[in-house]
Amino acid sequence: MYRNIEMEGRSIDLSKELKGLLKGTTTLGVKFENGVVIASDKRATSGTFVASKRAVKMLKLTDYAVATISGLVADGQYLVNQIIATAELYRLDAERSLKIRGMAKLLSILLRNYRPYYLMAHLIVGGIDGEGSHLFNVDFFGTITEEDYLATGSGSPVAISVIEEGYSPKMSKEKAIRLVLSGMIAALSRDSATGDGIDVVVVDKEKGVTFLSKEDVSILWKELSK
């Protein structure tokens, strides 16, 4: 998948160099009846080294959209910053908000434009617009799929199994929050590259993007861990 590069007179196999960097993190999202709930952990790893315990992997794109990052943090931050700037310019020029699908498509274009090299970022784009609530998976290659629920990162196999067991398209916001937290708690307990806390955001028509406070997350965490 990756090309060898020449550096200081020696050939470097990118597939081997990046193998450890692509393992880590859990990000998770579900759609509920009138919005989406998305969560991420706070641990950033470099191979087996815990590089940060306060990593921000979930970023606000607009008042009604967010994105999560797994993969290389620098690449993910670059892509998210491009979408934030483009979405704001679109709002000013067209006098309307860029749709969630449009943001996902822009990410796909940016990722494909770097071929034959790759930006190593796997993103979830979620939010709500005039067409309803949306949750998009955008992978390293620029592939886009719209899902009712999804997970990325090394803890995703554990987290998604919890979501599949409890998901319902017509679930309430409160149930969606508890389900997402349950999936994240499972990932934290079984995946060593996931940890150091959970960030949770809700996006709905009434309030737009709302990040849950640490206190609210902590209370629910204790309830669900019993």
Please give a handful of descriptors for the protein shown.
single chain; 226 residues; alpha+beta; Glutamine Phosphoribosylpyrophosphate, subunit 1, domain 1; five-stranded antiparallel sheet; 6 helices; 33% strand; globular; disordered N terminus
Polypeptide structure, described:
The protein has a single domain (24-224), classed as Aminohydrolase, N-terminal nucleophile (Ntn) domain (Glutamine Phosphoribosylpyrophosphate, subunit 1, domain 1, 4-Layer Sandwich), CATH 3.60.20. The protein is built from six helices and 14 strands. The protein has helices spanning 14-19, 73-94, 100-113, 156-166, 173-190, 214-224; strands spanning 5-7, 10-12, 26-32, 35-41, 44-46, 49-52, 58-62, 65-71, 121-129, 132-138, 144-146, 149-153, 198-204, 208-211. Strand 10 and strand 11 (144-146) form a beta hairpin. Helix 2 (73-94) crosses helix 3, helix 4 (156-166) packs antiparallel against helix 5 and helix 5 (173-190) crosses helix 6. The longest helix is centred in the middle third of the chain and has 22 residues, at 73-94. Mean pLDDT is 85; it is low at 1-8.
